Amino acid sequence: MAEQLIISVSGMRGIIGENLTASIAVEYGSAFGTFLKEKPDGKKERLSVCIGRDSRPSGEMLQSAVIEGLCATGIDVVDLGIVTTPCVGVMLRELACAGGVIITASHNPIAYNGIKLLLENGVAPPAPEAEKIKRCFLEKNLALADSSHCGRVTCSDQTDATHIDKVLAIVDKEAIAAKGFKVVLDSVNGAGGRVTKKLLAELGCEVTAINDEPTGLFAHGPEPTAANLTGLCDAVKAEEADIGFAQDPDADRLAIVDEHGTYIGEEYTLALAAKYIFSKRTGIAATNLSTSRMIDDLAEKAGGQVIRTAVGEANVAATMFEHDCIIGGEGNGGVIDLRVGPVRDSLVGIALVLQLMAETGKTISRLADEIGGYYMSKDKFPARQDQAKQILESAKEAFAEAKLETTDGCRFDFDDGWLHLRASNTEPVMRIIVEAKDRPTAQKYIDQVTAIRTKTLAH
Ligand code: MG
Question: Which of 77, 99, 249, 278 sits 20 to 30 Å CA-CA off 413?
């Protein structure tokens, strides 16, 4: 069976030339334009939307089509060209746009591309708003403009400079530059290379950049996981660098390699950034239910607090706005600092981690050791919606002693660890994330879930 086009809260994702075509993108652009014009606060005479794309070869086609669709509804468009996802979040607020669009399929393979939507606050539409856009698209309920009211297209080349200024404002540039860090950067030939090299130059780093051409021809698997980053690990060792940074194609996620050339895991990115923030300020952090306890330990030590949200950047960002959080993000290497923008941002992660190294004078491996000490396992298994529901019910009975949180699937907190079980929104699978004080303890919980699965699926 051919794969379905996915339309979710974060936009549309599909396979180019199969289910995601130019004509679909035009109509989706017009659906977004119609939604913006019909919003209660969308009655201004002219509305604008800024649009950027990652480096995939299909990006130009898809971006042109979305621009066409927006202009057809009378929306003006600011074309940012090849930029990172967080850059669009920064620019739409800077230019006071009514919305933003990013053409990216994030860490998915090259066959995919996607259209990600942001509202004027820089956050993806909440579920009811996303549903309205989807309905406009599916029912072809498009408010097309007449010939004198079509949108116009302009370009901006201020994106990198604007974004870098905002990131530099949250750290002590001179203190970092004084250290002259040696850094290896792997941008997987995505959108991150150009702007990140400029940021690192501003921070006085000696940079070796690999896979930094925005060709969209990914030099390795595009997700910044250990298996995909052996080249970066080798380069850090060969260059005797202080640290290695890896971005995904749209540069919202960041993974770190220590000075020994060892991948330390994406969970550490947010934890290290939070370690710096909590060393300076006391306040509230926000992260999703699947993210490591390291951030709770750091918050507790600093007299702060962590609010847990459902999985998804928009949920974290909305909570951060609501509670005026000083740091937030997700355990997949996504760090959010509202002073820069409400989007996961690898440049923010890089700047905060370098600041932490500069201030403490400690190596990145030592800093990671100081906050670690947990064992974490992330896995998924096939389960239809009805099976997932049964598995959750059985798990509630089996783990009746644990503290239960049901915002997004079930999260069980035990004295010696936690377990998060949730059904995927986009595929017929369940995700299981376990973190415990050691591997055997984590395995104990995984084995219990396996027993529940076997029993459920046997019926
Ligand atoms: Mg991404």
Answer: 278
The residues, any chain, with a CB within 8 Å of residue 220's CB and separated by 6 or more, are 188, 211, 228, 229, 230, 231
Kindly report, residue by residue over 242-284, the tens digit of the pLDDT.
999 999 999 999 999 999 999 998 999 999 999 999 999 999 9
pLDDT for position 219: 94
- Which candidate in 10, 30, 55, 106 is catalytic? 106
Q: Residue 44: exposed, middle, or buried by beta-carbon count in 10 A (0-12, 13-18, 19+)? A: exposed
Question: 303: exposed, middle or buried (C-beta count within 10 Å: 0-12, 13-18, 19+)?
Answer: exposed
Tokens standing for residue 359: 């201030």
The 410-414 sheet, strands edge to edge: 375-382, 429-436, 417-423, 410-414, 403-405
Distance (Å, whole) CA 54 – CA 355: 28
Sign of the dihedral through C-alpha 433, 436, 442, 445: negative
Find the DSSP H helices in 169-312: 173-177, 193-202, 230-239, 267-280, 294-301
- The answer on pLDDT for 44 being more than 70 is no
**Catalytic status, residue 106:** yes
Cα 144 to Cα 69: distance, rounded to the nearest angstrom? 9
CA 105 to ligand 1 centroid distance, Å: 7
Pairing of strands 153-155, 76-82: parallel
Q: What is the pTM of this model?
A: 0.95
Mean pLDDT, the chain, rounded, equals 95
Distance (Å, rounded) from C-alpha 421 to C-alpha 432? 5
Question: Mean of the pLDDT values across residues 118-124?
Answer: 94
pLDDT of 440 > 80? The answer is yes
CA distance 411 to 365: 30
Q: What is the spatial distance between Cα 309 and Cα 290, in angstroms, rounded to a whole number?
A: 9
Q: Which residue has the higher pLDDT, 148 or 40?
A: 148
- Measured in angstroms, how far is the CA atom of residue 299 from the centroid of ligand 1? 26
